[in-house]
Amino acid sequence: MEKKKIVSGMRTTGKLHLGHYMGVLTNWVELQDEYDCYFFAADWHALTTKYDKTENLKNDTREVVTDWLASGLDPDKSTIYVQSMLPQTAELHIYLSMITPQNWVERDPTLKDMTKIIRGDGSGAKTDTISYGLLGYPVLMSADILTFNADVVPVGHDQLAHLEITRDIARRFNNIYNTDFMKEPMPKLTQVPLLCGVDGQKMGKSFNNDIKISDTEEDTTKKIMKCITDRSRVRKDDKGHPEQCEVAFKYYQIFASEEETKCCAAECAAGTRGCADCKRNLAKIINEKFAPIREKRVEYTNNPDMVDDIIREGSKKAQIEAQKVINKVRELVNIY
Ligand code: TRP
Ligand code: SF4
To answer: Is 233 a pocket residue for ligand 2 (Cβ < 6 Å)?
Structure first.
């Protein structure tokens, strides 16, 4: 039986952090064997909010793909490409944009949140500008997915509303052109183990509280040493409360073995483990886990041609698949 198709993408906003690794990448790596996977760096989606800050765009795109490869995405198993290198997506986006009612995109709650953020802190587009392209965000995302007629889309909760529009658009396409060609893709919710930043807030580059996949061991250790711990603990032999240790102990639960985590909790509660030692040990555990990934990453960074070749090959493969869908769509829409 033919494998089911999976499509997923990530906006290219720079180097990825451990939250991306634990929340998304480990999941993608696992899916590679069971599904026919298409993973792409969404540089057009990055443009929807950063059209006036593109000086790092090309570099960010390569960094994202480098993080993927280091984390175990395998070009022999998955098709890895860059969104803007698949012109078929742009063509499908045009057809889909014609059939998408304006109020569908205006209602999209995720988009509403995005535009609020943009208006609020000025981190995205100019404060008063919601561009035509940004309004089309879910339509472009639909084109990403439908251009392969994908079965399944692994996404986080925040993307579900977009995917609902994708399913609506697929259905509407079928109704209008009297066909059942377009599949309604199913979301596959990623179980994100919530990895907070070193300050206990949501991990994110803009909050300056993240640990990057690409960070050195020294940087990682420095950041871990800043983690918040049990605030009620003053001296290092005070009895601690692991469950009140807001960041460090949570990291143990995610990164350390069960045995190490148990030992940490017991020693903390007994007051025989100081927080500084505890965090130094945590840094060691994280650094050991990421050592092979970082090693691989350095290899790719030293050979950017390898990454470019993988992207070029992946884009070629993606184009061949996507063109089959476009040919059928052109036929259905009666394009000359
Ligand atoms: N919007 C997604 C995000 O911000 C990225 C994305 C773009 C995507 N196109 C996609 C995800 C298609 C899945 C399928 O995370
Ligand atoms: Fe947290 Fe470890 Fe300190 Fe306990 S000893 S409060 S688990 S950092």
So the answer is: yes
